[in-house]
Amino acid sequence: MEIFYNFAEPAVSFPALSNRCVFKQIFGISMKSVLSVPSFLIAIFAWGALSCSSTKDDIRVVPDSKLLKLMIGTSSFENDAVTAVMRNDSIVPDLLTLNSPAHSIIKYHSWIWIVCEGGYVRVVKPSDYSTLGTIAHMSEDLDFRYIVPVNNKQVAISDVALGAVFLAEEQNFKITKEILFNRPVGQMAVTGSELYAASGDRICTVSLDKSYEVSELKIPARLDSKLVSDKKGGLWALSADCLSAVTFGGSPRYSLSAQGIDASNGYLEINSERDKMYFNAVKNGQLAIFEVGINGEDNPSLLFTLDAVENMTGMVMSPRNTLYVGDAKSGTGNGVVYEYDLYGRILNTYAVNGTPGALFADR
Fold first, then answer.
1. Could you give the C-alpha distances from 246 to 31, 196, 306, in angstroms and in order?
2. Is residue 258 within a helix (H) or strand (E), and if so which, with residue range?
3. Do the Cβ atoms of 231 and 294 come closer than 8 Å?
4. Residue 305: how many CA atoms within 13 Å on its side-chain side?
5. Could you tell me which residues come within 8 angstroms of residue 182 by beta carbon, excluding any fewer than 6 positions away?
6. Is the separation of the CB atoms in 334 and 354 below 8 Å?
7. Which of 71, 171, 172, 310 could form an S-S bond across to 360 if both were Cys, CB 3.0 to 4.6 Å?
């Protein structure tokens, strides 16, 4: 028997009818005629009727969040959703149904935070994937992208439409502060009392000591590339033509264009030991993964090529130092997510319904 997962509705749902009406609706007979039938025959008949009439949509299983491996935001003409991959590599399609595509997914304080297009954040309880709350803004012109914890009480949400960062309370999910950058804001990171953000094509900082003053740094950055923190406390940013240290005055800075490397659609990640960084880029017309250390001693080197990838949509590194790479598979309408080891071997291929977008690796 094939098992499918769907949490948009309960396992079996009926209108608000009396017990008699429900019984008649299911089995097509009245309670009066049933009274003349022995109870054991009723039980057999009921079991058989339900067994024969059951479909694949009748079986609902809530996956154990402790066995979660990967969450994938998917988007198609039919619906926007979050698909889950479990640790046994089984796929749970449409674990969560969304109103718009997911731009990013994080887990913070054991909750799952899903940032969606159109200006809202859905906060989900992992134990049963129920919605704890929603962060939203009154304006219809916003487009939230990323979220980071600011402290134990607040989160920061970036917006590309208005060009702002919003601070929201974790306890009641209310937006309490709007910080204008006047240009699109993407990935963010918090170090001490400073918030760093990729804004436009540069890094900007915001003081979180209640002054909320925005300052621009002459460090290039790509909106959708993660700002990663290394084991020495350094923060790094990737742009189309360079990889720069942010917190040490932009030095070291690796010139990628000088090596013929184009990271216009690059995503930056760092390993669990936080001593080596990885990013995707194109060199000599070939999409590949590059590796570089945090000490600034060697230039980025080509690690392996992504020959199987047709239309890359995202990348994230797992706690086990494997890379998940989203691929929209041009012209198919459905995509896949590949899991690579650092030798370039494809460990797993996960087919999804729609285009894979946001990726969150729990294992």
1. 74, 9, 28
2. none
3. yes
4. 9
5. 163
6. yes
7. 71
Cis peptide before 93 (omega within 30 of 0): no
Nearest 5°: CA angle at 157, between 115 and 97? 10
Supply 255's token pair. 């010139």
What are the structure tokens assigned to 203, written together? 């890094």
pLDDT of residue 81: 96
Q: pTM higher than 0.70 for the full model?
A: yes
Decide if 26 contacts 18 (C-beta within 8 A): no
* Rounded-to-integer distance, Cα 323 and Cα 272, Å: 12
**In this predicted structure, what is the pLDDT of residue 298?**
87
Order across the sheet with 120-125: list the strands.
102-108, 111-116, 120-125, 130-136
Amino acid (1-letter code) at residue 57? D
What is the mean pLDDT, run by run of 10 residues, along the chain of 363 residues? 38 34 37 41 38 33 79 93 94 92 93 93 92 88 94 93 95 94 97 94 92 93 96 94 86 91 98 96 98 89 97 97 95 90 98 95 90
b/e string for 172-209 if b means 16 or more Cβ within 10 A? ebeeebebebebbbbbbbbeeeebbbbbbebbbbbebe
Query: CB under 8 Å, gap of 24 or more: what pairs does 123-131 form?
Result: 123/173, 124/96, 126/65, 126/68, 127/65, 128/62, 129/7, 129/62, 129/65, 129/95, 129/96
- The pLDDT value given to residue 341: 98
**CA 329, 331, 332, 334 torsion: positive or negative?**
positive
Residue 266 CA, distance from chain mean position:
17
**Strand, helix or coil at 34?**
helix
> Residue 55 CB: number of other CB atoms within 10 A?
7
* Alpha helices (H) along 7-38: 19-27, 31-34
10 Å Cβ neighbour count for 328? 22
Q: Which two structure tokens, joined as six digits, stand for 137?
A: 């803004």
Phi-psi category of 48—alpha, beta or left, where left has phi over 0 and alpha has psi -120 to 50?
alpha
Query: Beta strands 268-270 and 276-283: pairing type?
Result: antiparallel
Residue 339: other Cβ atoms inside 10 A: 21
